[in-house]
Write a structure and sequence with these properties.
Length: 220
Amino acid sequence: MKSYENLHETFLVLVFITIAGGFQDAYSYLMRGKVFANAQTGNIVLLFKNVVDLDFRTALSYLIPVISFALGVYIAVRFEDAIDKRVLHWRQYIIALEVIIMIIVSIIPENLNDLANALLSFSCAMQVYAFKKIYGLNFATTMCIGNLRSATENLSKYHITKNKDYLENAKKYYTVIFIFGMGAALGYITSELVGLKSILIATILLIVSFVILFFEERGY
């Protein structure tokens, strides 16, 4: 952990944030009408599929999280620029807002899934912007496609150059993908057992990350 200037770039925070990311995607898909909180590529594909089918009501269900995700990134950037660091780090404000959003989602009934998915996508977008570097490398904690590309790219470069740094980088990316998968598995299991309120488990994971960031030294 001491190898990195900021705690938000360390393995400890990565575990809780990434498990929460995988959990949210599984929850939104299984419990909120087969819409992805994080995987906006899937939402866009299904959006245009339903447009072609002239099923505009279903298309809207996929358009809403895409727009909410974009809005979440926009707001997160504004947070980074505007929040005073004297009380909390801006990333802690992001996590706190995520926790509030997920508590609200846990009480939204199933007939308002569009609202729940909009809030979840907004929350995930803020997270993916706030926690985009781990181990000093660019990572995504709420999706896998970029991590899979980077992992395999580094693995290929290792086989070409025999530079072990590339191998270590590949291992880190593959580890993040595995942790995300564990979060998705946890989301699946708990969604089956607890139902709509299972999203509260993700809030616990985020609260742990929130507390860890208190130990980050000043000079974020």
